[in-house]
Specification:
The chain is α+β, with helices and mostly antiparallel strands and 282 residues long. It has eight helices and twelve strands. The two termini are 50 Å apart. It binds adenosine-5'-triphosphate and magnesium ion.
């Protein structure tokens, strides 16, 4: 957002006022502003940017009514969750802004979203903040070092203990870097195959897909937001499925439709880099 036009376009992109403007470096609710109309929003953004502040612009999720959810993820599950609710006419639920906390039992959709958010960020322990929108959970933030005191008090759960148990389990049964371990034998590796809607594989089962014959094993199947680990042979492939496979890299590469070749904009590499002249000179 560099000029007035950019700012107005950005406001329109999130659906117009009311919008939420956030200072990137804000915390405890400070620097989170609810702008009631487009003019005020544009003026606030312009002012902050003129002072070299980076801002984030969001659609105001009115139906969340001053509430948000904090879920603490440990490993692949949510071990505790609380709802923070703003008091009075405040829309920010931060405890530092007077928000009250209560333990909640999360809907499965919220649990899944929290766990997936942590996994996408590569975190085994995370605090995931979500808004309860009409379209389901909206992730606001994924925190890599969530404070435990507030949520332990609100839920009366021993979250620190859950984290220690998790680490203890990891020692007995450590997660290893599958890709690294499986890429040891030359020519074999892990890759994700996307089933294009028009592909021949759509409608066939894993058994009849011919993958196994090409020395490709399906480790897991991602369908939308669900993951099916170790899918069975009779599982039918659907458009846009993503298959995490282990197998012959060449065979897997053949399954990916050829992309339009881009003309390289770099100096061509020497045919035989080892006998390059500059190399010989040194
Ligand atoms: N887009 C939004 N729509 C409705 N309410 C929002 C929105 N964004 C934030 N809020 C409310 O404002 C509160 C503060 O926002 P946010 O968590 O983004 O900032 P912060 O708490 O200051 O920063 P941080 O969480 O990084 O410390 C949220 O807990 C939520 O209650
Ligand atoms: Mg927050």
């Amino acid at each position: 957002m560099r000029n007035r036009g950019d700012i107005e376009a950005a406001i329109e992109r999130v659906g117009g006022a009311p919008v939420v403007i956030k200072l990137l470096e804000g915390t405890q609710g400070i620097g989170v502003i609810l702008a009631p109309d487009n003019k005020v929003a544009a003026a606030v953004i312009e002012t902050l940017q003129s002072k070299e502040h980076n801002v984030l612009l969001q659609h105001f999720v009115a139906e969340s009514r001053g509430r948000d959810i904090r879920a603490v993820v440990v490993g692949d599950r949510v071990v505790a969750a609380m709802r923070r609710s703003a008091q009075g006419d405040e829309f920010r639920s931060n405890v530092h802004r007077g928000g009250r906390t209560e333990a909640v039992q999360l809907e499965p959709e919220f649990e899944r979203t929290a766990v997936q958010s942590a996994q996408i960020m590569g975190l085994r322990v995370a605090g995931v903040d979500m808004l309860e929108s009409d379209d389901g959970p909206l992730v606001m933030e994924v925190n890599s070092s969530p404070g435990l005191e507030g949520i332990e008090t609100a839920t009366a759960l021993d979250i620190a203990g859950a984290i220690i148990d998790y680490i203890d389990n990891q020692v007995a049964f450590p997660e290893l870097d599958v890709r690294q371990r499986l890429t040891v034998s030359t020519g074999y590796g892990v890759a994700e195959l996307h089933i294009h809607p028009g592909a021949d594989l759509v409608g066939s089962t894993i058994a009849t897909s011919g993958l196994r014959e090409r020395d490709i094993v399906v480790l897991s199947l991602n369908r939308g937001t669900t993951v099916i680990p170790n899918p069975r042979d009779h599982r039918v492939l659907e458009p846009d499925d993503r298959l995490l496979c282990f197998g012959k890299l060449e065979a897997m590469r053949d399954l990916i439709p050829a992309r339009k070749r881009r003309r390289p904009r770099v100096k061509p590499l020497p045919e035989d880099p080892l006998h390059d002249e500059s190399d010989a000179a040194s």
